[in-house]
Amino acid sequence: MSKDKKIKLPWDEEIEAIKYVYVNPRKSFLEKYACVVTFSLIGLAIFTKFKLTLILALLLLLSLLTKKYVAATKKELEMYTDMKIFKSHEIWSWQDIDAITFENKAEHKDLVLLYFTKNDITRRFFFNKEDKEKVFDLASQV
User: Fold this and answer.
1) Helix ranges (DSSP H) in 1-142
2) Quick check: 1 pLDDT over 90?
3) DSSP 8-state class, residue 89
4) What is the 3-state composition of the chain as percent helix, strand, coil, each rounded to the nearest 5?
5) Could you please report the per-residue DSSP string of 60-118?
6) Model pTM?
């Protein structure tokens, strides 16, 4: 998907939605290397008897194309995953979230890393530092 094409997200109409900040966990050279490995695995599957490498290549390609969007809204934490072949919209109600903790990362001075824990699952997302207290306020209102 090109960068100028805007995806329609479920919380776009909500004024008070606090959107997370995307921080790419991979360095750009690793993404290029992963693309080379993906096409190498596809070639290996085509020209050899090792057909299992095609499945590995498709999984790697899918992970490279997946984009995740997150927003904290009045009622819940919403996570929207766009995997190109299908989309997933996961909602965690504030009542279901057991804990929210934060961490300041030295490499991202203007961002804060928030950890959301529900049962035994913890998800982490970057938010702007000024939005940290807003997220805590939304969670405590319910």
Assistant:
1) 28-47, 52-65, 132-141
2) no
3) E
4) 35, 30, 35
5) HHHHHH-EEEEEE-SSEEEEEEE-SS-EEEEEEETTT--EEEEEE-TT-TTEEEEEEEE
6) 0.78
